[in-house]
Amino acid sequence: MAGARSYHSLVKRMLPLLAAAWLSIAWQAPDSTTWKKYRDSNQLTEWIYAQIQYSGLSPAAKAAQLKQATINAWRAPASAEEIQAWLDLLINQGYTLLQSGDIISSTDAYQQAFEWGRQHASITDAGLVLEYLLKPLGNNYTRLGDYEQALFIHRIALEFARELGDRQAMAATYSNLANTAANMGQLQQSLQYCREGTLLADKHSATYGLLLSEQADACQQLQQYAAAKQRIQQSILILRQQPASNQEAAHWLFMAYQQAGDIYLATPATAAQYYQRAAAMPESKRALRKREQARLFLRMGKLQLLLQQPQKALVWLDSCASVLLPGKTIRQITPRDIYGEYILLDLLFTAGTVHQSLQEPVTALSLYRLCFETERELRHQYISASAKEAAISDSRDRYETAIALAWRCWQATRQPFYQQAILQLMENSKSQLLWEEMQQQTHYAGNDSLHKRIRLLEQAQLYYRREALQSGKADSMLQQREQRVAWDLATLRKKINAIPGADTDRLSADSMLRLLPPGQLIRSFFTGNHALYSVEMDRNGIRYADSTAIDRNAVINFRQQYFESGPQAMINNPKAYYNAAYQLYTQIFAGHPLQTGYSYLLMPDGVLSTLPVEALVTTPSYSSAIGKWPFVVKQATVSYAYSLRTWWLQMRAPANTEGFSGFFISQQQAGLSHLQGAEKEKEGIMPAINDGHWYVNEQAGSSTFKQALMQSAIVHISTHAFLKKDSIDAPHIMLYDAPFYLFELGGLPQHPAMVVLSACKTGDGRMVTGEGVQSMAHAFMAGGTPAVVAASWNVNDATAPLLMQQFYQQLSKQRNAAAALQEAKLSWLNDPRVTDLNKLPYYWAALSFQGNTGAIILRSTRHYWYWWLLLLLIPAFAAWHKLKN
């Protein structure tokens, strides 16, 4: 179903029959004898339409009946009429589910219809597909918040409308595009879609009124309130003038009244009048859908909350709940009732806020948890990565509200329940997408047809991405194919997520903390808009929870001024750096200083994700001797993880156990600077490695690199790396012959235990709210690598070889890789041959360790000689003892 040209206008006679079914024209339900007659005479088309036209059921029951019909069919459709009838059956199922309020099941049904139409494009009616399939499917994705997929469908619909020459359909599609763009925050684009639609629509039509309401929405978000009020009034006027028989126009009027209420919220009395006009519309004048009715009740509840009338708000919220979950009030909702629906999510959070205002914190926290569970279920329905990221970002403020409540209750009562709630909420807010990606590495390991299909599509996706990049994105056909494969792949992954036992998201913190060795502590953070929350844990559980003020701009400026912009600011004024570093240390750690001799696993959040903690100083007394500064690196071993759950997976991740492969590219391709330190790095590392594989310049090719990732325990990379943050479309590592794109990691069946990225900015990248830094290190961890060493800014060409030499020497002596990296940095600071200037943190603090500190054991050649000598001495001693006796 890649484009409109694959559809032909056939089977027109089906449309009146389908429309009759949708308008619920009364039909005497055929008895079982009639259905049996169709079956016995092998009349599949008649049997299908008898199922479609069965009336007298509720939308939910009707949807269930149609679903059962797809199961009870005695054979697959064969003729053109049967194939068209089957499409009508799937579309009707989607529509009845939409009427019942089950948006997710409705989307799944429409998507099945979409796939069926795609498989039988030559005999599918284009007008039917446009009006009754593409339009509702695109709108469903918008309702779910999966806006990338909504755009994908709406653009196909626009192509259909253009080829059909249907100006009204084109105008309606522009309205859908405008709505989707506005939801994505692309407000100017939304207004442009509206302008294009109004040029096509009849000025007195309901579609024109709909376009005006979309303009009002964009203007409201742009805070152009006068324009928003003008447009919504014009919209209401036009929609009120539509014929009473136009149910679609009546529905749009119902929604316009609610939108007007939102626009006039600054004047609550006026807002209430518009909401009440919507509520007063008789059902006979509009196509009532449960979802929109629930949204109206929710708006009324929010208005009462705004007016500080919590009890009245609860009445409206209970009405909303009874629509979304028949027979349920807010307090009766349980985790078993939860499903993916944005209105339910909003309802639960609003209800939690109401109960918080009523001084009922336990109920409020329970509702907040249900809200986050709903958000998670909803996010699992999304196909595009951008929609998932937007959902994570959108939930951020809600998590902060819940954490702040749990913190206040902990302060007031000291009940462990609230302390555990803080940790649980913090953990659930973090790196949820990384957690899901890491889980996929185990869930997709099956050998059944579904897993094989996924792996095949993954390979196809990699091919299309590489080809599109190499063609400079000039080949639109490649891009369309890659998008099509991405759609199919995401659809199959949703099926994997639905398999019982595939979800291990509900792990207890206690079970994860038992993996901690003695002397290691975890400190997890949540950086909110109003406070920084921290929880410290050891293997026995929570040691403390705390909250403090944090100047986020100070963290951002510190990072930019002293690290991202190069060493000059630090060189020019080391005292200013020292003072700034101490101030940040006191903000973050003063309440609970890092204890000397401990190993800390830090789980930063927000702006803290970019902060080099080891480069901070712990006392206010400045000294001109930089090597003597009290850096955090001297006080404690520091490693990093994204969350407890991701760290737990890294601790359990299977990986290669033997072999070292090093890639050192000093002679770069044209346009890239040569890296003279790469070969020095190789020479420094070699003495600490036994039986390593060394690839220099032309030997360090892309195919060799992929083999090394699948066969070696340690893969070391010294070359250029490029990130999306650097305006690169596809982040990649520059090998001698070709780039290695990070998306290629997803296709590897085996992974190294540790990857060392001795390249610039491999630990830096795009910041995603609630997810952390999307760096190269992040990509390797998502792909299944338990441990990564990466650089957060430009590594110094002279410093890196010596640090790496010390790192591998230390790694051959101890199990803790983070401690080995710490010792390498201390060796640099204590080396009298290193000038004080080069002991500034810019030169040594870029490299950090993330993940499982015990993922790899490295023994040097010297240690192996000891073992060989021992093996030789044992039989020699036995022979001597025998001769002596």
Automatic annotation (TrEMBL):
Pfam families xrefs: CHAT
TM region(s), chain numbering: 865-883
SMART domains according to UniProt: TPR
InterPro entries associated with the record: CHAT_dom, TPR-like_helical_dom_sf, TPR_rpt
Signal peptide: 1-28
Annotated ranges, domain CHAT: 584-851
Keywords: Membrane, Signal, Transmembrane, Transmembrane helix
Protein name stated in the entry: CHAT domain-containing protein
Phylogenetic classification of the source organism: Bacteria, Pseudomonadati, Bacteroidota, Chitinophagia, Chitinophagales
